[in-house]
Amino acid sequence: MTQTIVAQYQWYNVRWFKRMAPVYDWIEFLVASIRTRAAEVHLPKGSKILDMACGTGAQSIAFAKRGFSVVGVDLSPDMLARAKKKVRSEYDVNFICGDASKIDYPNSYFDLSSISFGLHDMPEEIGLAVLQEMKRTTKQNGKIVIVDYHVPENAFVAFIGNKIAKIWESKYYDHFLAVGLEDYLGKVGLKIENKEVRLWGNAQIAICINAK
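^ that's the sequence the OP posted. Answer follows.
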């Protein structure tokens, strides 16, 4: 991954989500139940959770509501400003503005890591680097949870879902959909252990085990 790709992505990301931040939560109702479902993991309260590309914090807070200690990372200060407004005193959650492909946490620090509707908003090179960082910072045999788009088997449903998503999605969306999540995971040595398809097949919750 070259510095040019990183610089271009960071420039694009900050500007794109500055525009999206005011309206992002208006479309959150479409995936709110998916985020809740993704947070239903069997871990003791207080377990350390990493939420990459956390945006306005919906997935991070879904984990925090279940009593977990959450770190959310995102490049966009505008998205994080909205995330911080959602935090209640009973939530153990910390939001960090920074590059999710390189975070300041030691190896095997987190019990579980997640990225929710984030990979499709990145160039593939960045997405793979983020997945590698999730592997590095998640404990051996810990879960890595990925929530993102999925192509339905029904062609008509896929067509409608694509047209709706294209209303708000970034320029990286088409590539992610064409390549597919399994291809990304294969390139970083992750395998889906369990997959749940939601939203009429247009979204997926994929759970991998970090075998290191």
